[in-house]
From TrEMBL:
A GO MF term: methyltransferase activity
Record bears the keyword Cell cycle: no
Name under which the protein is recorded: FkbM family methyltransferase
Entry's Gene Ontology BP terms: methylation
Domain Methyltransferase FkbM: 82-228
InterPro entries: FkbM_mtfrase, SAM-dependent_MTase, SAM-dependent_MTases_sf
Length: 282
């Protein structure tokens, strides 16, 4: 009944308030009340909703959406990659929801990895690896805060912390980088059912290291962040479209997916959002 009344009021307001009057009302609140209209607009389409898994939509993704795509009907266990696993919260939630899956968690930051290993030690379906994933095998520097060695903001781009988070009290460490393709070849993994990437601006490089799997339709669903860190890495949403031509791209909202459709520059919004890429032939 509550939802019905809400929808009825919405329809009534749309009927009685013209576009011109609506614009005037919005302008009034901007001018007089100093309302953050842009922030409201962003949050209405799944942007800047990072505060909780429920608000960001990650809870919906894990509990509802993935259950429609992960296939437990055969003897093969679904394969999940958590790239940029930090201390393991995401991997642990996935393990709890999908105990029959195989989860591979990657975290290059040594101090963070120790916590990841400890936090997941009792979960038999999670394997952890102390290296990062990128476009080629290499050694890179990773930067984190001097007073927060396990920060989820740790990045291979120093400017993420110095320019975006306004901190110069940083620690620099060398970390090993592998590729998804090499890892899968070395571990006899033919298919990735769900690939989650949270690497503070390095997401595109991670995907480039899986291009053969992507082109052969061997990765079903991909989740990656797109935000202000892509300004630092100089990667546009268009670059992801070009790389993921076999996929349909969506923005994740609290309890829905918003179809981004064909590429449109209007979606080049460098603010926190999760993009979900679903392979066309699923």
């Amino acid at each position: 009944m509550k939802n019905y009344i809400k929808k009825l009021l919405q329809r009534s307001l749309v009927h009685f308030i013209s576009n011109q009057n609506a614009t005037r009302i919005i302008q009034f609140f901007v001018d007089v009340k100093d309302v953050d209209i842009i922030g409201i607009a962003y949050r209405s389409i799944g942007i800047l909703k990072y505060q909780t898994p429920e608000l960001s939509g990650e809870a919906y993704l894990m509990n509802e959406l993935l259950s429609k795509y992960l296939d437990f009907s055969s003897n093969r266990k679904p394969i999940i990659f958590d790239v940029g696993a930090n201390v393991g919260n995401y991997s642990i939630d996935l393990s709890r929801i999908y105990p029959d899956s195989q989860i591979f968690s990657f975290e290059p930051n040594p101090s963070t990895f120790n916590k990841l290993k400890f936090n997941t030690s009792a979960l038999k379906n999670i394997q952890v690896f102390n290296f990062g994933l990128g476009s080629k095998k290499s050694v890179l520097n990773i930067y984190t805060y001097q007073n927060d060695l396990d920060s989820e903001h740790a990045s291979v781009y120093r400017e993420v912390l110095s320019d975006l988070h306004l901190s110069n009290d940083l620690v620099e460490k060398q970390v090993a980088i592998e590729t998804i393709s090499d890892f899968c070849n070395g571990n006899n993994i033919e298919q990735i059912d769900f690939l989650k990437i949270d690497t503070e601006g390095f997401e595109y490089e991670v995907l480039k290291g899986a291009i053969d799997l992507i082109n052969r339709n061997k990765i079903s669903i991909i989740q990656f962040e797109f935000n202000e860190m892509n300004v630092i890495s100089r990667v546009f949403l268009k670059d992801f479209y070009d790389l993921l031509q076999n996929y349909e791209l969506f923005r994740l909202d609290s309890n829905r997916l918003i179809n981004l459709g064909h590429y449109n520059s209007i979606n080049e919004i460098f603010k926190f959002q999760n993009i979900i890429a679903i392979r066309n032939n699923i």
